[in-house]
Amino acid sequence: MSDLKPHGLEYSSGAGAVPQGFTPEHLVEIAEAKKRFVRIRREISVAVFDAWSVAIFAGITVVCSLGSISGMFVGFGMGVIAFVEFRSIARLRQLDPDAPHALGRNQLVFATVLILYAAYNLLFPGAGLSAEIKDAAGADPELASTLAGVSDMVNHILYAGVIAFALVFQGGCAIYHYTRTRYLKQYLQETPEWIRKLHSAGLMN
After folding, report:
1. Could you please report the per-residue DSSP string of 172-188?
2. Which of 71, 77, 142, 170 has a CB 3.0–4.6 Å from the CB of 113, allowing a cystine?
3. 15-67 pLDDT, tens per residue?
């Protein structure tokens, strides 16, 4: 039983191996590594929240968009984005130096999907007023024209807002992930290998 090596870690002495006995110096190294890992842990938390949010809204969008080609496109697109996000989070937990860039690219793809969806609906608006409102305003052409104008204005504001949201929020998230790359590289350069192995094994996350 003493020869077992859980998580693939080596417990023998030597370069990069986990020390057999902790000394005060080892405890100091662990404390310093945890401080360096704070920003990475925060990025993981942000990405997890974002991934679950996108996954939930993807399901809601698909259900609410049955029969709408553009809506289904966005729903399935968001589902793929959430899947990639979760995979990139797993890579980040394993200290993959390319993971922050993968998360940033995923946000840019998400922004592109939202912008294309909004642009499509601005260029090719739907039926506008519902049949019930048309029937109610049928006796008053002026009222029907006013309601149609209001409906168009609301749609323009809505989809213009979607574009603005994608540029600001998804663009901001992409920048956030891209700028986290240097912190991960700093952690990898300054942290002893035996501590990095503990993090990769999920023992210090």
Report:
1. HHHHHHHHHHHHHHHHH
2. 77
3. 445 566 667 787 888 888 888 889 999 999 999 999 999 999 999 988 888 87
Q: Position 18: which residue type? A: V
Residues 110 and 82: their CA atoms lie apart, in Å, by 9
Residue type for position 189? Q
Q: Is the dihedral of CA 20, 21, 22, 23 positive or negative?
A: negative
Burial label for 151, CB within 10 Å (0-12, 13-18, 19+), is middle
Q: What is the DSSP letter of 68?
A: -
Q: Which of 47, 49, 1, 22 is nearest to 198 (CA)?
A: 22
**C-alpha to C-alpha distance for 114 and 108, rounded to whole angstroms:** 10
What sign results for the dihedral spanned by CA atoms 106, 107, 108, 109? positive
